[in-house]
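Researcher: I'm preparing a figure for a lab meeting and need a structural model of a single chain. I don't have an experimental structure, so a prediction will have to do for now. The sequence is pasted below. Please return the structure as tokens so I can convert it later.
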Amino acid sequence: MSDMMIKGLANSPVTAGISKQTGESSAAGGFGAVLKDAIASVNKSEQEANTMITGLASGQHANIHETMIAMEKADISFRLATKVQGKVLEAYKEVMRTPL
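Model: Understood. Here is the structure written out token by token.
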């Protein structure tokens, strides 16, 4: 991967919500606040992609490149959130199976 690609991933909407752990969100609500921020970030990227698609379809702008980039960012962040959800559920099930 190129340095530009790695820097772009580090600043993605999902990792932006996760990297706030040292800020106010971790002090106030901990894991729940971080999770809420990450979900809000995924939702925001989906809304931005939908706005770009609507603008392209209605002729407000003709920049298909930015629209495709916004769609891919939204797709990647949603897939990442889905994978994280699966891992959290697996961890929860494993903890519940642990004998006391």
